[in-house]
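Action item from last week, closing it out:
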Amino acid sequence: MNIVEAFSNGRWTIDGSDYEPDREILITNAIEIGRRLKEAKGLLPHGEWGKWLKESVSERPTG
């Protein structure tokens, strides 16, 4: 499940357990994650964002 699917159906899987978080909390957390990623991008030299993102952020499949 990707972030768009999670927003669409409101379900997340963490450590194999499904749960339905409060939509407001979900949106607030997603905005905060985006803010932090934008801040991190601003700290990197030009052209390094993609490499840093691959090395630093894991997106593991769920479900």
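Closing note: Helices lie at 3-9, 23-43, 49-56.
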